[in-house]
Amino acid sequence: MASLVLFQGNTRSAIEHMVSQQTLLGKYESKGDKHYLGDGFYFYEDFFQALVWVKMKVTRNMKYLGQPWGVMKCEIEFDENSFADLDEREEQNFFFAEMVRLRREIASNNLVIAEYSDAYLCNHLSKILDLSILAKTFVYRDKHNSFPTLFSNDRSQPYSITRHFRTERQYVVKNRTAGWEIKPLELMESGVEKMSREVRGR
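The chain above was modelled as a monomer; its predicted structure follows.
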């Protein structure tokens, strides 16, 4: 067995509900093709990343605008065989190999892919490999806080822009009942954020 201490930013009402039940609740699961690692409960290993994310959620997303927020701490024990770290080369090789295999299989059946999403592939991998947790580091592009090219090292031609970007390592819990257990959840920090200038001006 392995363990992780992870943090999730969410509305305070959602966190207080899960803390009171001492479990992850299906009504708060993220679903759909906009989530890079597919369906599940999203966490960060970095408390401050969760803090930044939830503050953006309640100031830029109209659905949650102005709601009180919180950051939840969760200790998870799980079977190492049910964890896929997509930052590791071997796991990446399988990810892309399965992508190619599926593409060929679809073509051999004279079918056409109407739309591709990484979320679909991650859901597929989780099903065939019986995965409970996936993790991956993504480049974090924030249009509200981007850096101009003047921060680049112009002496390293032909590079004219910085090669350093903010990143975030996401964890998604795909199965909240099998192969792992949640230890006591805890509300770490909470507050109310003012809506962002961009939203306020609409």
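Residues 89-108 form the longest helix (20 residues).
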